[in-house]
Amino acid sequence: MVLGVLCAASMFWAGAMYGQRQAQTARFGARFDGAPINLTVEAQTPVGKIVRRATDQLYKDERARSNLTDDEARVVLDWAARWIEEQALAAPDEASAESAAQQALARVRPVIRALNTLAAQPDELRFADALNALEPSLQVSRSMRRAPLFQVLTALTSAVWKIQSDPVQQNP
Predict the structure, then answer these.
(1) Residue 19, CA atoms < 13 Å, CB-side half-sphere
(2) Which ranges of the chain does DSSP label H, i.e. alpha helix?
(3) Could you tell me the pTM of the whole model?
(4) What whole-number distance in Å separates Cα of residue 103 and Cα of residue 97?
(5) pLDDT tens-place string over residues 103-140
(6) How far apart are CA 148 and CA 96, in angstroms?
(7) Collapsing DSSP states into helix, strand and coil, what is residue 63?
(8) Which of 40, 87, 164, 170 could potentially form a cystine with 104 if both were Cys, beta carbons 3.0 to 4.6 Å apart?
(9) Domain range summary for the chain, segments of one domain joined by +
(10) Are 46 and 89 in contact, with CB atoms under 8 Å apart?
């Protein structure tokens, strides 16, 4: 009983701390369409400034999104911004965060370009064609160990099913 109360109290405290942290964070930056980038890093921290510089480079590169619709560009560029943020936040110090952000930026650019090229096709896009277009950017060798491959495939399946079940995604 005492253990249960302690667990509940610690979970409440952790939830309260998370909420407080979320309230303290600032969303910053602007997408190409003027809407804010959905980032959670504190804007005025050194890492926040690093993330902002890297994501600003993405959003200013019109060539990377010239074939994407606004909705498509929002999905792709917001994903890239979150990836950069995650990598920078995982770094142990400011110098490492700068390096991680630049490496993440270099990693997402070919993906964005591949998706932009794919978006230039006038017809509906086939899933298999999209995967083929992304394969070089993923930098996956021709063969993968089975367990990581199944991890990728099951995560992809879950993502597809979630998107397919979202009524907002079903009615563009």
Answers:
(1) 6
(2) 2-24, 46-60, 70-89, 94-119, 127-138, 146-165, 167-170
(3) 0.70
(4) 10
(5) 999 999 999 999 999 999 988 888 898 888 888 888 77
(6) 27
(7) helix
(8) 87
(9) 27-154
(10) no
